Amino acid sequence: MKSVSIDPQSAVPKYSQLREILLDLIDAELAYDALIPSERELVDRYGLSRMTVRQAINHLVAEGRLYRIAGKGTFVARPKVEMPLRLTSFTEDMLARGQRPGSRDLERRVGAAGGKVAKGLGLSPGDPVHMMVRLRTADEVPMAVERSYIPVLVAPGLDDVTLTDRSLYAILEERFGIELDHGEQTIEAGIVDPDDAVLLELRPGSAVLLVERRAFAEGRPVELTVSAYRGDRYQLHVGLDAPRLPATQSPGLTSSGGDGHG
Ligand code: GLP
User: For burial by CB atoms within 10 Å, which of 96, 240, 241, 260 has the most?
Assistant: First the structure.
């Protein structure tokens, strides 16, 4: 059983022990948006210095487990959003969670595709593309900054349509008759771009998940989007299948590999 007091002899730093205690409390007893005990109470209850208590809480805030409201206290954060591994839109994902999706156009223009965008969209460098930068929110909380590129030929006039609080995928379907039928996505860890940090209300240097998606309709690339999702609000969950190699291919079971010592 985990101890519910601080062990001063332990090699584990005290703030880290308190972090574990608070995590147990969050998981076992507190609903999201519940107020956690004040710093003063934690100091008294665990016999720690204020600095140590603050360090533990700062960690949990940076990890997205707690959030602070100035003058009110520290609260339990909502569970992280599962990064979907299907070709769904941000709007659909948030509605499925019972949250209100929002979108703000930060930049919209038609420009010449650079090398990477052209390659991703099966165009020649210099071909015209719609470029859009959007801030995505859930219940007004900033979640991601998305930079999307769509060939002008695929959706002529898209630049005249506002995307504020609207779904790009819904517009592609309704206005342009484009039904996306497959996609591919690369996900990697990143550090938030300084401008995005302001938009996402993150401290400079915070972690983000960088997601690059290409979506296709009838074999033709329609969208290339690079999104920076808040690392403190998103997680990735994948199911794992056991490898199903035929017995003869399992290492160690082969009697003679044929590529062995000749
Ligand atoms: C997700 C994807 C983006 C896609 C967007 C469309 O966020 N990462 O690549 O452009 O969904 O969402 P919506 O239709 O809500 O604008």
Answer: 96
